[in-house]
Design brief:
Helices cover 0% and strands 59% of the residues. The strands form two sheets. Strands 2, 4, 5, 6, 9, 10 and 11 form a seven-stranded mixed beta sheet that branches. Strands 1-3-8-7 form a four-stranded antiparallel beta sheet, with no helix packed on it. It is built from no helices and eleven strands. It is mostly beta strands. A hairpin with a 4-residue loop joins strand 7 and strand 8.
Amino acid sequence: QVQLVESGGGLVQAGGSLTLSCAASGNSFSIRSMGWYRQAPGEQRELVAAITSAGSTNYADSVKGRFTISRDNAKNTVYLQMNNLKPEDTGVYYCKLMDNRFWEYWGQGTQVTVSS
């Protein structure tokens, strides 16, 4: 079993920055990829950014150039640096881990609110 603990959400003004962290722990797991998803009220959960174990990254078009995903393999932790935040970035941000068996694990979510 894998546990994911997210942190770093909060309230920020438009144009501001936040950094989210997601730490994975558990027994005998190998990470294939980790990523961040977000869900706005009344909307579907959507991919924000993902990073593979090899370091390949993928971003939603809406965040390219503003958000950066990175990971610390030694700490099994993934980060999402969010710059130039916009009100439309508001939502609950969830961390997802996919292991080498293609099983998926989700964090509990952290709220990000961007005021205009």
